[in-house]
Amino acid sequence: MADALGQLPNAPLIYVLAQIRFTHVPRMDRRWEDLHERVIERYPRAEPERIEQLTLKDGKPVVGDSIQRWNLLSDDRLTGLIVAADSLVLHSARYETSKHFVAELNNVLQDFVKILPEKGIRITRQGLRYVDLLLPENDLSVDDQIIETLRLPRPPSLGEPERMEQIVTYMTGVGGKLVIRHRQSIKTDLLPGDLFPNNLGVAPRLSRPKPENQIAGLLDYDHFIEKEIPIDVDTIVDSFRNLHSVTSAAFRETTTGKAQAIWKTEAI
After folding, report:
1. Cα separation of 220 and 216, whole Å?
2. What is the strand order of the sheet 79-84 is part of?
3. How many other C-beta atoms can be found within 10 angstroms of the C-beta atom of residue 39?
4. What's the pLDDT tens digit per position in 41-77?
5. Given 116, 124, 203, 258, which residue has the most CB atoms within 10 angstroms?
6. What residues contact residue 100 under an 8 Å CB cut-off, 6+ apart?
7. Do the beta carbons of residue 145 and residue 255 sit within 8 Å?
8. How would you class 129 by CB atoms within 10 Å of its CB: exposed for 0-12, middle for 13-18, buried for 19 or more?
């Protein structure tokens, strides 16, 4: 992430998401417009969205309940909010620093709590997620950018590898869980299916051509706390700072010094 080691002008980060889940808010189909009115200068675009959920019945897919949510987007579509009856998301394909991102989260929350009922709503989950796309950098392969335990096994008798996926879960010191998903692939199948596609524009790094027949990689850090607490903006924001602190350390400790040195330089 862009400020794990100070500012990283050439950072591999392509997407960041802060999600807050809470108990059901009645009449969100009306309340979301009150929120939009408060944030319209920063998020002028509004796009309602209905997601149909599929379930299996007798082995066949059946359309179940639908989820209604509202996307509020910046003019360039690189940052946005997703509002639903039980969740609020701030996400961005244009991340600068955690200080800037958390400050915007604080601003959004200050406006959001004003549209909620005065009592009865409680936070149930807070999550912070960073997604980094690893591409060959100069003479540095993807394996050279990550620590040895994450590298792609290459037994000589098995030929050239095509794809690998690892998932590791940690209990963290801030009372949360950190799930690190690491993928490498020679194909264009790296992006997490639960996040992409979305209503945001494309991060500049995703527009970079991938060298033909070379492995690309993905590091997906998903850090969350599942705990029911009252809604208090200062408490929520402090919690996200703690989530970031641990996740930033995870980024430093799973990538190499050579890669970090390249990411500190200006993007070409």
Report:
1. 14
2. 45-57, 60-73, 79-84, 87-92, 13-22, 122-134, 216-230, 177-185, 163-171
3. 17
4. 999 999 999 887 666 666 666 666 778 999 999 999 9
5. 203
6. none
7. yes
8. buried
